[in-house]
Specification:
single chain, 548 residues, alpha+beta, five-stranded mixed β-sheet, two-stranded parallel sheet, 24 helices, globular, binds zinc ion
């Protein structure tokens, strides 16, 4: 008995160890390896050479980002690269997916022995500095120095007397930034596009002077087949204060066909607004200029855009001085969306949708709905009057505002496309495909959870459409389908409900609606559990980078 038990225990231990070893490859398997590339044949010879320089510059963003993330990151990476064992290779692979020893999909849990939690201030501040110490310190500083200390483009360090000081990025990362500036200047010399030349040479200057304003303005004015985004941008990694920007790069090409489609839709926006299914008094008789949207294909990324879930769209710049004067630009990464569609949405449809409707799910419909979603953010109630005072939807709906706004853009996107189908602008055969694709997409969005604004907004739409008969669940097949007889009216009614609550600025009604519809119900839970083994996102490889 004793022997047997020992044997059994040994067996269990051996198994546990095996699981521990395999866990990293299981974690990595949540990202489907995918090649991301685009056709460069239409580019001028100069632009093609410039592209090569930009790809090199993007790689430098990797190095700066690794340093920004954690002071020990570069040493750890060097160590991981030397480990030739199978587990060592798995660790390296997963490190590269995350650009550090913390697993992004698992709330930044460390996955390498001996590594503690990710420092809240990343490597922007001394690791032993507390929030209180920082606040006490800036309280004693001049206004200009305070601006520096809380600015996007400085780190905070200790001097020889252990006092806090700020260091501009141009000094802190001077080795890499000088090389990057040189590459951008060379690229500027190679391109025949004046707006690209202007952006690249100003960005090169910014890397050396630490003043990014002029180059951000030039980025807004870019009108070029090659569309690079490179520099310090997002502040999420500074979990201490959200002050400091991480370096990243998106080297992309403008997609002319989709840009044309976008222009075509844009010309109908006022007409769509005039026909929104809301009380006419809530419609905007004269839409203002919308912020520009660019559709691009990704060639390569660098820095913060590499790790974890891949960015499929972004809105930049963040610097309020620039956005006040020039607005901001929305960039949609078409081929990244396509990769996600193929690797994730198609298999989701294979599980969640009734067999008869699976073949209706298409990328053209998926991406067109994304375009419509982005455009619809600019339509419907925004500045509103509540009890005689002028305010905004965002202010009145507070923390519910984002989920509502995302749901609005989704569902009114369907309404808008249906409007264009009925008008004959979009061909009729698009209709069924559009609704089936939307339904499959709902599962992808809800999978990210209802803590996320998109996820919560999508749960609300889904349950409303079920209750109103636009979507059906089949108990026997455990799958969902669009009810083509009901979906049109249900989408219209939901657009009406959401936009009316927004127009009234009613927090109470918004809360009631989210309470009623915004959670995941039993049937959907069952489907989501069956999606568990599908990849969550893609892990891109860039064939043009390798071809270099
Ligand atoms: Zn949105």
């Amino acid at each position: 008995m004793f022997l047997k038990l020992t044997f059994a225990l040994t067996f269990i231990f051996a198994q546990t160890e095996m699981i521990a070893q395999n866990q990293l490859s299981l974690k990595a398997r949540r990202f489907a390896p995918t090649d991301i590339s685009a056709d460069v044949s239409h580019l001028s010879a100069g632009d093609r050479q410039a592209l090569t320089k930009l790809m090199e510059a993007a790689k430098l963003m990797d190095s700066i980002y690794l340093i920004q993330k954690w002071s020990g990151n570069m040493d750890l990476l060097a160590k991981l690269r030397k480990d030739e064992s199978t587990e060592g290779k798995e660790r390296l692979q997963y490190f590269l997916i995350n650009m550090g020893p913390w697993s992004k999909l698992d709330h930044d849990e460390p996955f390498i022995d001996g590594i503690g939690p990710h420092p809240e201030g990343a490597n922007y501040y001394p690791e032993d500095m507390s929030k209180d110490e920082f606040n006490a310190w800036i309280g004693t500083q001049s206004e200009a120095r305070q601006r520096d200390a809380t600015g996007y483009f400085t780190t905070v360090r200790r001097d020889e007397n252990r006092k806090l000081v700020t260091v501009p990025y141009s000094t802190e990362y001077s080795v890499h930034l000088k090389q990057a500036a040189q590459l951008l200047r060379e690229a500027a010399g190679l391109t025949d596009n004046a707006t690209l030349r202007a952006f690249l040479s100003r960005r090169a200057t910014a890397f050396l002077t630490n003043d990014y304003y002029d180059s951000d303005v030039a980025w807004m004015d870019l009108d070029s087949p090659v569309e690079p985004t490179i520099g310090p941008y997002e502040v999420y990694m500074d979990e201490l204060f959200n002050y400091k920007a991480a370096f990243e790069a998106f080297i992309t090409l403008r997609n002319d066909a989709e840009t044309k489609k976008l222009e075509k839709f844009s010309s109908y926006l006022q007409e769509i607004e005039d026909n929104l299914p809301i009380d006419p008094k809530y419609r905007n008789p004269k839409l203002g200029a919308l912020s520009p949207i660019r559709v691009v294909d990704e060639i390569m990324t660098g820095g913060e855009s590499r790790p974890g879930v891949q960015t499929a769209a972004f809105n930049l710049p963040n610097d309020e001085k620039v956005t006040r004067e020039k607005g901001s630009k929305r960039v949609l990464l078409r081929n990244v969306q396509e990769a996600k569609f193929n690797k994730i949405l198609t298999p989701i449809a294979g599980i969640a949708l009734e067999k008869t409707q699976q073949s209706l799910v298409g990328f053209e419909q998926f991406f067109t709905h994304i375009l419509a979603h982005e455009l619809m953010h600019g339509l419907g109630p925004n500045t509103i009057t509540v009890d005689g005072r002028q305010t905004t939807v965002r202010k009145e709906l507070k923390e519910l505002g984002s989920a509502f706004e995302e749901a609005k853009a989704d569902i009114s996107g369907l309404f808008a496309l249906q409007f264009l189908i009925d008008k004959g602008v979009i061909e009729k055969q698009f209709e069924r495909r559009m609704y089936a694709t939307y339904l499959a997409g709902a599962f992808r969005t809800v999978r990210f959870g209802t803590n996320d604004a998109h996820g919560k907004g999508m749960a609300m739409q889904f349950n409303f459409l079920i209750d109103e008969g636009g979507v059906r669940y089949n108990e026997a097949t455990k799958a969902y389908s669009v009810n083509f007889e009901g979906i049109k009216d249900a989408a219209r009614d939901l657009t009406h409900e959401i936009m009316t609550i927004q127009a009234e600025g009613s927090y109470v009604k918004a809360k009631a609606m989210l309470d009623k519809y915004g959670s995941i119900r039993m049937d959907m839970k069952g489907i989501l559990e069956r999606l568990d083994n599908l990849p969550v996102d893609i892990a891109p490889t860039f064939s043009l980078e390798r071809a270099e």
